[in-house]
Automatic annotation (TrEMBL):
Keyword field: Signal
Name by which UniProt lists this protein: Uncharacterized protein
Species of provenance: Mucilaginibacter rubeus
Signal sequence range: 1-20
């Protein structure tokens, strides 16, 4: 049962499921808080593969199996009912996202990673946060040691993105960032041609 539940959570992480989260009960909130607290102790930067990410989350989940039983009881679900428990797993994953558990969101990115995918190559650039430009998409701009501005496009969720969603530029001012990025070729209708942009893969605040 537990294995299937975890697999369903992992599947949920790689989809854009439209399943609406149910009202969070007291038992589930205790589980969410406990999971997020324990996940925050994991050094996600040292996890490089999907398998390692899955193992880390599974271990954390197993440490709180008693709370999962409480959630099942709270929702009148038999723990032997795998389809029903799978729905509980989806709900837990969705609510961890909804409550912006940063450690879970970072780990989820790696749980959804395709280790067999072709390596397109990434690069790392460090600098001081300057501003966020909004031009259809958000662009995070930093300055390097020579005070030259470098711009990186925020196209998709990336590791560390939760720190920039609600943060004001004033709170980020002067922060040193390490941005991992990759080149992406996009078509610009205005220029009637293709243009290479630097897509953000992850950002670490140093």
């Amino acid at each position: 049962m537990k294995k299937n539940l975890l697999l369903f959570i992992a599947f949920f992480l790689t989809t854009t499921s439209a399943i609406k989260a149910q009202t969070i009960g007291a038992a589930q909130q205790r589980l969410l808080d406990s999971l997020c607290k324990e996940l925050s102790k994991i050094d996600v930067a040292k996890i490089s593969t999907k398998q390692a990410a899955n193992d880390a989350f599974e271990k954390c989940f197993e440490n709180h199996a008693d709370l999962l039983m409480d959630v099942a009881k709270e929702q009148n679900v038999e723990v032997t009912d795998e389809p029903a428990m799978s729905k509980v797993g989806v709900e837990i994953g969705k609510n961890l996202m909804k409550q912006k558990c940063g450690s879970f969101m970072q780990l989820a990115m790696k749980m959804g990673k395709d280790d067999d995918a072709e390596d397109t190559g990434t690069q790392v650039t460090s600098g001081v946060f300057k501003r966020i430009d909004t031009k259809g998409f958000n662009y995070i701009v930093i300055t390097d040691k020579a005070a030259a501005e470098k711009s990186f496009i925020w196209l998709r969720q990336f590791s560390g993105s939760e720190k920039f969603i609600d943060a004001s530029p004033a709170k980020l001012a002067g922060k040193k960032l390490q941005i991992t990025w990759k080149d992406m070729e996009v078509y610009l209708p205005q220029a009637k041609g293709y243009y290479t942009v630097k897509e953000i893969v992850s950002i670490d605040i140093l």
